[in-house]
Design a protein that fits this description.
With 303 residues, the chain is of the alpha/beta class. It contains 13 helices and eight strands.
Length: 303
Amino acid sequence: MDIAIIGLGRMGSTIAGRLLDTGNKVVVWNRTRAKTEALSEQGAHPCYHLHDLPALLTEPRIVWIMLPAGKPTEKALLKLADILGPGDIIIDGGNSRYMDDPIRSQTLEEKGINYLDIGVSGGVWGREKGFCLMVGGSPQTFGIVEPILKDLAPADGYMFCGSHGAGHFVKMIHNGIEYGMMQSYAEGFALLEHSPFGDDLDFSSLSHLWNQGSVIRSWLLELAEKGFTNDPKLEQVLPFVDDSGEGRWTVEHAINSETPAPVLTLALMERFRSRQENSFADRLLATLRNQFGGHPMQLKKDD
């Protein structure tokens, strides 16, 4: 099938590459020409101006946006709404907020343009392993793009989740679970590191061991094994953990729906904590212990 990929970052370029590998005609556009040209060398059709897209695709034209959530995606949607026509399909595969999807769908529907929100998981390994795809929208539009989803996903690797917003919502919860799983691995290996056996344990080998029939085996442990192989004690890594926003939205949904989610919430809080080099809260804790119990404080030394 014909499809255009808008945005060639880590995920967009990998999606384009897998679609090329499976025999699709792929048109690519990126804000910077270098990434477009790199994909064109692999067989993609370059597009340097969005208004040229309609002439490069057969109808119904399918355009997949893989841009950062927020203004970049909204700006692209507005441009495409003016460029594309009735029957065409726009897919947002980024980490957009699910509440935006019904509004987008209604706006595009007024011009006869169909819309799907697709949560995408698989990271930079997706070209080789395939992507897990969570789809929201109409069943009819899903049916049109299903051949593309089959090419992108491994066996049983895509699912129609429901109406507009369902794809991004399911992906949001997926990422919240991911936060919790990552945090549990992080805490477990920290306990091993800070133990009488920490100096002798090979964490790469241990990660491999736990993936052999253990109840905690996972792809994340496979990635941990790779990470420990490259840097056994993670000495080259700064303790700063970012977030893409979906963990926050998951916690907001937990609050709004009054659904207990303590593990996912604490995992998000730990990411915030990782960014504080000189925590005000910890300084206050030390001060209070000193005030009520006379416990000693460690004070800064004068330069």
